[in-house]
């Protein structure tokens, strides 16, 4: 006898399956991270014409008292990075005191002339890709604006510019062996792991800390994840360029990379320095590990802990400023030696330019494209 299934049951089963699928998809927003072996392997389709911050260039020459469409967005930018310390959500398009004060503080932090105007050098810095961590945390100034100027110093630029998070959080004194792991869903390939191992080495070479990769993401001290857009920690990523990554102060251990960037494994940009969207993975990894260990942003242009980085730029060597800052927190590696560590490029103090020299560029041959599906 043929069994007849009521049509209502079929509808319920189909509806349930559909709802289950819908639930699964809603719980697993997918994205793919773009890792490339070198700059020439980035497909043209992934290279944007412009990024959201490029729109700020229209404000060239703006100054106090003016009202220009879109200035509210620039105030949101300054609020995001700590320069406007208010919980206000709606800003006006007026060039008011909020913006004027923020601008001057920003200019001081980035070694620019404190004009209080949106001049070309300032806009060039504002539109540069950068770390998502704020320069000023909870109104507590760091970088240049938080330092007491020493008028009597003959070499004021030799004053240390490194900074810490408020309260100087660090990993506990007895905990010198830290483990790190990658979010399993990112399915990170070995070449990416090697870049991070190299980046961690740079910090362990100058401190008492050791870093070891572990398979257990949940038990690892440091958790590295690649995400796109809003990923649940209140610090959404913004697509290509803009903010590149962020990391939390100790002992949080969370380090997040923006999955929409075009990450380059071998950051030899000399062959194509004009490709604006390529970001050197190790350069950003070294910077974010600095945050994981307790360093804030520095005003020294060459320092790893400087907040922004030019795209298609490789900058991986710790400078004197970075080393002095991290050794304040953890002491020195017994094998560390200033004279063998510092090179002419990383010994310099602040002059606002970027060091491009690298003695340890990873040489990785072959085309490598890793699509990564996130939960
Ligand atoms: Zn940063
Ligand atoms: Zn995050």
Automatic annotation (TrEMBL):
Residues noted as binding Ca(2+) 2 in the record, renumbered to the chain: 221
Residues the entry annotates as binding Ca(2+) 1: 261
Record GO cellular component, one term: extracellular matrix
Keywords: Calcium, Glycoprotein, Hydrolase, Metal-binding, Metalloprotease, Protease, Signal, Zinc, Zymogen
Biological process terms in GO annotation: collagen catabolic process; extracellular matrix organization; proteolysis
Pfam families: Peptidase_M10, PG_binding_1
Annotated catalytic residues: 288
All residue ranges annotated as the Peptidase metallopeptidase domain in the record: 167-332
Protein name in UniProt: Metalloendoproteinase 2-MMP-like
Species assigned in the record: Coffea arabica (Arabian coffee)
Taxonomic placement: Eukaryota, Viridiplantae, Streptophyta, Embryophyta, Tracheophyta
């Amino acid at each position: 006898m043929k069994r007849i299934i009521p049509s209502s049951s079929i509808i319920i089963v189909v509806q349930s399956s559909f709802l289950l699928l819908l639930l699964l998809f809603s719980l697993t927003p997918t994205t793919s991270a773009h890792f490339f072996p070198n700059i020439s392997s980035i497909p043209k389709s992934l290279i944007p014409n412009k990024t959201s911050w490029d729109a700020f260039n229209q404000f060239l020459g703006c100054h106090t008292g003016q009202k220009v469409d879109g200035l509210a967005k620039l105030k949101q930018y300054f609020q995001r990075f700590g320069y406007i310390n208010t919980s206000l959500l709606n800003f006006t398009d007026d060039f008011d005191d909020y913006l004027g004060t923020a601008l001057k503080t920003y200019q001081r932090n980035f070694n620019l002339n404190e004009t209080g105007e949106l001049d070309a050098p300032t806009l060039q810095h504002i539109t540069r890709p950068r770390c998502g961590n704020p320069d000023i945390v909870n109104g507590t100034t760091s970088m240049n604006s938080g330092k007491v100027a020493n008028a009597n110093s003959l070499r004021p630029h030799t004053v240390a510019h490194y900074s810490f998070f408020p309260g100087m959080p660090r990993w506990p004194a007895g905990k010198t062996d830290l483990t790190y792991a990658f979010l399993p869903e990112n399915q990170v390939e070995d070449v990416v792991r090697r870049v991070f191992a190299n980046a961690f080495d740079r910090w362990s070479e100058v401190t008492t800390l050791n870093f070891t990769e572990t398979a257990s993401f949940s038990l690892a001290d440091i958790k590295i994840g690649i995400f796109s857009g809003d990923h649940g920690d209140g610090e959404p990523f913004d697509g290509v360029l803009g903010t590149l990554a962020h990391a939390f102060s100790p002992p949080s251990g969370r380090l997040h990379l923006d999955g929409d960037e075009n990450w380059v494994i071998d950051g030899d940009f000399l062959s194509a320095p004009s490709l604006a969207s390529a970001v050197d993975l190790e350069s950003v990894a070294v910077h974010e590990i600095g945050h994981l260990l307790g360093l804030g942003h520095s005003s020294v242009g060459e320092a790893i802990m400087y907040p922004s980085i030019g795209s298609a730029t490789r900058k991986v060597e710790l400078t004197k400023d970075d080393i002095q800052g991290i050794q304040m927190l953890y002491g020195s590696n017994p094998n560390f030696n200033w004279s063998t560590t510092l090179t002419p490029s990383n010994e310099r103090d602040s002059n606002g330019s970027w060091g491009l020299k690298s003695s340890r560029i990873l040489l990785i041959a072959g085309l490598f494209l890793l699509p990564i599906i996130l939960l």
